[in-house]
Amino acid sequence: MLRHAQRYIMKKLKILPIFVCFFVFTTFVFGQNYGIAVEESGFAPRVNPAALGFGNASGIAYYQEFDNNGLLDTYSLYFNFGNFSYGLDSVSGDFFNNISFAFRALEGLSFGATGRWGWDYDGIDFGLSSVVRPFPFFSFGIKTTDLLGSLSDISMGVGLRPLVFNNYWRNRLTLYLDTRASDLFSPLAYGMILEPVNGIRIRGDFDNDKKTFNAGITFNTRFLSTAVNSELHDTPFGTGNFSLFASARQMRTVIPALPSPSRTMVVYNKANIITDFPEDSSFISAVYPRRGRTISLLEFINDMKKIKNNPDITAVLFDNQRFVTSFANLAEISRVLSEVRASGKRIYFYFESASFRQYVLAASVADKIYISPHGSVNLTGFSRTGFYFSNFFARFGIRFYNFRSHEYKSSFNFLTEPGMTEEELEAFDSLYSSLQEELELMIYRGRESRLSGSARDVIARGPYLSARDALRAGLVDARLHRDEFNKLVSESNYSIVDFSNIPEFVDYDWESILMESIAVIYITGDIVSGNGIRGRNAGATAVARAISDARNNPAVKAIVLRIDSRGGSALASDIIAREVLLCRISDTPKPVIVSMGGVAASGGYYIAASAEKIFAEPVTITGSIGVVAIFPDISGLLEMLDIGSETVRTSESGDFGNFARPMTEEEMGRIRNFIIESYAQFVAVVSTGRRIPFMDVDKIAQGRIWTGRQAKEVSLVDEIGGLSDVLSYVKSKYIKGERARIIEIVPGDRHFSLMSMFRLNSASRQENMPGVIKALFDFLKKIDYYEEGRPLYLMPYTMEELGLN
Questions:
Q1: What is the pLDDT of residues 304-352, one digit of tens each?
Q2: What is the pTM for the complete model shown?
Q3: d(CA 679, CA 681)
Q4: Burial of 207 (0-12, 13-18, 19+ CB in 10 A)
C-alpha cells in the first residue's frame, strides 16, 4: 500500500510543473516590490533589506520600466557588497538614495536597516526590517519604510515552500503573500516563484491595489540573471520592466558548463597556523589577514569541501604553507586532502624549505612536490631530550615529594629523579614505535614508487640538508626556483586563482532558526578550576556550564566534545565528567561523542570515558590513567642559608603541606591513601563508562600512555577518525534532515591585552631560553593553576616535549 501511495504522489509531482506553468501565465504575475519574506536576489535591499544578511544578494542589480512608448524615467541601480548596499532610484525623474545594512543574528534570522533620501527633498526616512524563518518551509518578513510613519508604512509578508520535503522541488516552488499592518486582511499582493529547471524562473503575482496581474520569466547563467516582466491589464505585455543582476555568487544556470580551454589551479594560502578551535580575531589578522590569520581545523575542512565540490577547480597549490598544528590534526588534514584528490583534483606543494610536518603532509597526498634548489627537507624520526633536576636541587637542599599511583605516571619525575626510569623508557619505546609506524605509513602511502628505498631507510638518512639529496631519495619531484615553478605552471595551461577569489554558490534553501543543531564544545589545554581562559586552558565551571546548556537545549540533538588536553586538576576533571555522565543518565539525555585531538590523556580521558562513542586519530596521545601529586620541601635550603622558620598552628594539621619543613610519615601516608582512592575512582569511571571490567581497565591503566591506534586495540577508543568523521557519524545517526547547524563553543573567559591584540605572547620571549630554564618556567607557570595539595590527572609530557606539536 505504501509503495502504491509513493508512486501516486510521484506521478502527481511530475505533472505539477505543467499545471503550475499554465497557472502562472494565466493568473499570477510579477511585481518587483513584492515578496517581503522571500526576496533574496539583487533587489533585496529594495524589497526587504534584512535579506542582505543571507548573503545571496551580493552583486550589481539594474531595474528598468517600459511601456508602449519605450523606456520610462523609472529605474534603479543597486550595488550590494555583502551586508551593505547602496541604491539609486529614479521615480518619474525624481532621484532617491538608498543605503541599507543587514546582519544575520543566526541561521534563519536577519535584521536590516535602511536610510532613504531624495535629491530634491529635505530629511531622511529611516526604516527597519527583519526576516525570520522558524522552519525550512516557512518565512516571515516585516519592514517599515518610515519609523515615524503610520501603520500603512509597515509591510509584512509570509513565504511558504510546500514541497520542501521533496529533494528536487524543495527550493524551486515558493508561494508568498504581502500585506500592510494597517489592513492585515486585505492582501497587498500574493504570488508564486517557480524554477522548473535550472536557470529558468517563472514568477507572478497579483497587485491588489492596482487590480493587475504581472508575469515574468528569468534566465540565469552562472553569474548573470536576466528578467523580463509585464503587466497584464488592458493592453497585454504593453507595460512592464526588465532587470539585470550580476551576482557575486554562482547561480543555477540554464546554460550547461562548457569545457574550458584552461584549467583552474586554486592557490590556498590560509594553512600557516591551524588551531584545534576557532580563535578570536586579532587586530593584525583584520588588517593583514595573510600575516596574522589563523584558522581552525573545522574551517580548513570546510574550505577543502568547497574545493572538492567545485567542478571548475582542477588543481590545488599549497605554496610554502607552514601547517603549524598537531601531528594528529595533520593526519586528519591528510585524509581530507586525499578525498579532494580522489574527486579528480590534483594537489601540488611548493616549498622553499620543508619542515617535518610540512613534508609529512605533502608526501602523503601530493601529486607533485617542488622545492627550491637551496632548500632542505627536515625529515627525521621522533626523539625527546628530557632534563632531570633531582641532583641539582639536592645541592641547594631542595627536595620534592612525588606521589604517584604507578611508576608509569611520571609527570614530575624531572623534579625527583636523576634520569629516565625503566618505566619511562619503556613508555617512550612503545609510544615512539607506534608513531614511527604511522609516519612511515603516511610517507609510503603517497610516495611508495618514488622513494629510493623503504620509508624507514629514507627517514633514517634524514634530515636532508641538501635539496639535491632529497631529490635523489625520491622525497621531492623537482628542484625549481620560484620563477621556474611559475613558468612550469603557466606551461601546464593552468589559470591561477587565489582561494579567497573563488565565488560562493547561492544557497537556495531556507536555513531555519529551529534547525537541528550539533554543539561542538572545545576542551583545550590543561584542566583547571573556575572559568579558565578560552583557548588556553579548560575551566571546569565554564566547560560544565556549556555541556549543561547544550544538554538542555532542545535544538541540540548531539554534543561533540573536541578534547585536546593532557589533563590537570582531578577535581576539575571530575566536575566536567559529571556533566558528561548526566547527558547519559539524566531526565534530559543527550548523546555525547568525543573527538580526540592531539592529546586526550589523563584528565582528558577521564572526561571522555562516559561518552557514548570515542574517536581518535592514529597518532592521538591518550590513556595515562593514573594520579600524581607533588609537594616541595625547601627546609634544607633554609638551613643552608641560615634562614629560620617558625610556625604557629591551632592543630597538628594546621600547617599541612608547609614547604618549610619535611613531611611526616602520617602526612605522606594520608596522601598515598588519597592517591590510591583517586586512582580507584578513575578506573571505576572508565570501567563504567566504557563497560569494561574493573580489573581489565587496571591492566591497561597504571599511568601508561597509548597512541590512538593502540588505544583502539585495548578498547579505550571506539573508532579511528577525526573531527570530520565524528560530525559525519552524528549527522547520520541523530540528524533527521540533510542539514544541521554546527554550534562551536570555546568555553572560558576572553583574555584581552595589547599583546594578544597584536598576537604577541610570552611564548615568543621564551623561545631563546635555555632548555633547562624553560622547563622550570613552564612547570612553575602551570602548577599555579591547580589547587594546592590536590592530586592531578595529568599526562607526564606536553605535546611539545614529545615533538608532536
A1: 999 999 988 999 999 999 999 999 999 999 999 999 999 999 999 999 9
A2: 0.85
A3: 5
A4: buried
